[in-house]
Amino acid sequence: MSVQAPTAPAPVRRRGDVVFASLARGAGITILVALAGVAIFLTLESVPAITASPEEIGGDNILVYVWPLLFGTLLAAALALLIATPLSIGLALVISHYAPRRLAKPIGYLIDLLAAVPSVVYGLWGIGFLGPRVYDAYGWLADNLGWLPFFEGPPNGRSILTASIVLAIMALPIITAICREIFAQTPTLHQEAALALGATRWEMIRMTVFPYGRSGMVSAVMLGLGRALGETMAVAMVLSATGVVTFNLISSVNPSTIAANIALKFPEATGVDVNVLIFSGLVLFVVTFGVNFLGRAIAARGAVKEER
């Protein structure tokens, strides 16, 4: 006679758990629906721009119109990340591992406050303070490194490099805050074991903190990139845009960005011009979505490797 094994009792679902799960599920569905609605709206409104003749959009093909804007958007965002990423990681390490606690907390609060500053204030700071003060530095770059295409000059404070510095400062608190939390979550036993084996503090960070937080660092950089890609007013106020494709970073001849171009031209646009601007917004939407998707994929791949 076989004895039947006792079955485990079914887990009791409390009313609060059911309500919370329903609200979370509803919030996720709402976000997906809103995202799909934005994509559908941009696509439908972009059709007249895609089918319009070159004469209706200023004598250029729609792709010829958007390409300099896309180039300027990617260039400004890449320069901003190139500046902000090492600064953000360094600040996060100082707050989490180097500075005394009584000093680390105020520094963390000050960095977090940078995220609350309106973009218009950053634009005013960039055009009124930063631009005039980097002119001499740009002149030195043009005189000594002018043989490079990046610093041909003539120097001008309202350049793509100045706009990228402003974007870097705007992205810095986002990357720093996420990296700081990730570094603080590194298992203490791993750090103490590395120090006990004779590693210096930097070697301990390199062997334990960075591998543990690699996927989170990638996610932080991608979020900072999203901020840089979509910034509007600060870039529109600082940048002296001419709508060209150039790698000269310090002159007054600069490519514009998609977001800044929409902000400047949308109030006066009519007819097909509105659809052209919406099409450029669709391009920015696709680029931002692709960047975030790539960041999530890299972060997930890193998490899987860490589990193995």
From TrEMBL:
Residues 70-295 form the ABC transmembrane type-1 domain. Keywords: Cell membrane, Membrane, Phosphate transport, Transmembrane, Transmembrane helix, Transport. It is found in: Cell membrane. The keyword Nucleus does not apply. PROSITE patterns: ABC_TM1. Signal peptide: none annotated. InterPro entries: MetI-like, MetI-like_sf, Phosphate_PstC, Phosphate_Transport_Permease. The chain crosses the membrane at residues 23-44, 64-95, 107-130, 160-179, 232-254, 274-295. It is a multi-pass membrane protein. Pfam families: BPD_transp_1 (PF00528). Part of the binding-protein-dependent transport system for phosphate; probably responsible for the translocation of the substrate across the membrane. Belongs to the binding-protein-dependent transport system permease family. CysTW subfamily. This is Phosphate transport system permease protein. The lineage of its organism: Bacteria, Bacillati, Actinomycetota, Actinomycetes, Propionibacteriales.
